[in-house]
Write a structure and sequence with these properties.
Radius of gyration: 18 Å
Structural class: mainly alpha
Order of helices and strands: EHEHHHH
Shape: elongated
Helix content: 55-70%
Distance between the termini: 35 Å
Largest sheet: 2 strands, parallel
């Protein structure tokens, strides 16, 4: 089973290297393209970004924890700390 991932515009090189797995939004059409083409692109971008929103919010939640924003402690302690923060974020979002 091939893994597919939805990415933003910053990963165009990854899409080029793995066209069947790395899925990015459609490229911007030419300025002289028909209005229908521009509308279709906007709709495709919306359909592409909608499933990504919960994932982006979850990533942002973890980044808000100051202890993880700039890790200055022992490297070996990071996985356990990250799992603890992920559990706290998960519990908080499940109850709100």
């Amino acid at each position: 089973m091939a893994v597919k991932i939805l990415l933003d515009d910053g990963y165009l090189g990854l899409r080029r290297d793995h066209p069947t797995q790395a899925i990015t939004p459609p490229m911007k059409p030419n300025k002289i393209a028909a209005p229908e083409v521009h509308h279709a692109r906007e709709q495709a971008r919306h359909e592409h970004s909608s499933p990504r929103i919960p994932v982006e919010h979850a990533l942002a939640d973890h980044k808000r924890w100051k202890g993880l924003s700039r890790w200055m402690h022992r490297r070996e302690a990071l996985p356990a700390t990250y799992l603890a923060v992920a559990g706290l974020v998960s519990d908080r979002t499940a109850t709100t």
